[in-house]
Specification:
This protein is mainly alpha-helical and 137 residues long. Helices cover 74% and strands 9% of the residues. Helix 2 packs antiparallel against helix 3 (82-136). The longest helix has 55 residues, at 82-136. The two termini are 59 Å apart.
């Protein structure tokens, strides 16, 4: 029983709630910034991979075969010039980035509008309470 009493009153190694909040906040901010950096790096690497794959010339030609009374059809594929396709790929990336920015801006505006509505609704709830108190006096 004495051991439990000693453990109960022991304060060495105590973590204050304020310290826990600060440590938690720093951890969350660090994780958010780190994950944002990782996401950006992964997107850039995938963009580089797509450019590298697109830079390969994938054109081919298989001629028709004929012999011993049999014939097979040939096949071919001519890829458009690499410069042209890379330019098109750059345009796709630019459009995607513009759409992302526009979507982020719309989301930001929605959050601001929601905050305004919340403030207005909280003000409208407070006004009747004040009136009721003044009516009672």
């Amino acid at each position: 029983m004495r051991i439990l009493g000693k453990l109960w009153t022991d304060e060495s190694g105590v973590l204050l709630s304020a310290e826990a909040v600060v440590v938690g906040t720093v951890a969350v901010v660090g994780l958010t910034a780190g994950l944002s950096a990782v996401a950006t790096a992964v997107n850039e690497e995938l963009k580089d991979v797509s450019f590298a794959i697109r830079s390969l010339d994938q054109s081919y030609e298989i001629p028709a075969q004929e012999g011993c009374g049999a014939r097979t059809a040939g096949s071919s594929f001519k890829q458009q010039p690499v410069e042209k396709s890379l330019h098109e790929l750059c345009e796709v990336f630019r459009k995607a980035e513009k759409e992302e920015k526009a979507q982020a801006e719309r989301l930001k505006q929605q959050v601001q509008e929601q905050k305004k509505k919340d403030v207005e609704s909280s003000e409208s709830k407070e006004q009747p309470r004040k009136r009721k108190k003044s009516d009672n006096i």
